[in-house]
Amino acid sequence: MTDSELESEYEVAVVGGGPAGLTAALYTTRLGHDTVVINRGGGRAAMMLDTHNVIGVTEDVSGNEFLRTAQQQVQAYGADYHRDFVSDAERLEDGRIRLGASDAEVVVDHVVLATGFSDVKPDPPLPRTGRGLHWCLHCDAYMFVDQPVWVMGTGEAAAKVAMIMLNFTDEVDLLTRGDEPEWSEETDRQLAAHPVDIIHEDVAEIEKGEDGWLEALVFEDGRRRAYRGGFPMYGSDYNTDLAEQLGVELNDDGTVAVDDHGHTSVEGVSAVGDVVPGHNQIPVAMGQGAKAGIGIHYRLREYPRPLDEIESEGEVTTDQVPGISGRMRERAREHNADAAAPPVETGETSSADD
Q1: DSSP characters for 274-285?
Q2: What are the FAD/NAD(P)-binding domain coordinates in residue numbering (predicted)?
């Protein structure tokens, strides 16, 4: 994907190119707002070898393929897409927001923070992501029906996930890797009442098959346990640097506080996806992006003009509409013309005389 030439000003900038950010950009673009996506690359969706739980998308589609198609769709509607890392953000005196990236700077009316989080990774040895190392319980539990599974960690989340996995398989091990358990006494009693084996020895070796999938873990005491895969539960580091620079309110768990349409505590700043509370799922993220995009449209659209502005500025005249920039108007015309064009015949035709 080649970067677009950036303008210096946009109505909307989306920082982050995952499912939530790209959906927000799709909506703001199709609703007529000059939009740019600035994406550093990577992210949890990009790590997916297969796509699960997204209706209409088959499992053989990788995360990178899924995101590439979404990027192309957003650009086809008229948004700009730029690969860069946004390192600083500030509110200007006129109320707009300046975003500073590695090799670009833009000023926008509204910014969408889709910056996500990073999973806290345990120390190696570990199997390969997607081949025995899995980060999303709700996405991947289905593939472990009747398969031996490990859950790694010492906190409440690890203990709970180990018990949850009993809904799918009768072979669940909870690995503390030599660290002292930190779950509560109540959770400890609950855990003791479930058929979960707790292994305290650290992992010494990993055995993989020819296909790269995990086959077994060998522990420091010499025990070998067969596994199809498992889930590390060590928490998340939320990427909230830009939110904090803009003075956005955070929740106690480190996520960005938002309302039902992704608005934050700061005017002109929205947040969507894994950086806000909720299930970390692609369909959920896409729904958040859609609602945020619609909410931003309500804030930025020109019409209907409020009565107080009509009284001070006068009625809307025909030369003032449509309320869309010339740039977006031209891109929409091009897209709609392409969409309406009849298919091009590529094969040779034959006649009765041939």
Answers
A1: GGSSS---HHHH
A2: 10-289
Six token digits for residue 28: 């703001």
Of 285, 259, 289, nearest to 31 by C-alpha is: 289
Local structure of residue 335 (DSSP, 8 states): H
Answer with the one of 232, 262, 293 that is the final residue of a domain.
232
Q: Are 79 and 157 part of one and the same domain?
A: no
Is residue 60 within 8 Å of 16, Cβ to Cβ?
no
Contact status, residue 276 vs residue 255, Cβ threshold 8 Å: yes
Residues 206 and 255 in one domain: no
Rounded to an integer, what distance in angstroms lies between the CA atom of residue 196 and that of residue 191?
Answer: 7
pLDDT tens, 52-103? 767 677 778 786 888 899 899 999 999 999 999 999 999 999 999 999 998 8
| CATH code assigned at 256 | 3.50.50.60
What's the whole-number mean pLDDT along residues 213-241? Answer: 96
CA separation for the pair 313, 326 (Å, rounded)? 22
Q: At which residue do the structure tokens 């990788």 appear? A: 62
Higher pLDDT pick, 337 / 222: 222
**Residues 159 and 293 both lie in one domain:** no
Cα–Cα distance, 247 to 269 (Å, whole number): 10
d(CA 182, CA 235): 13
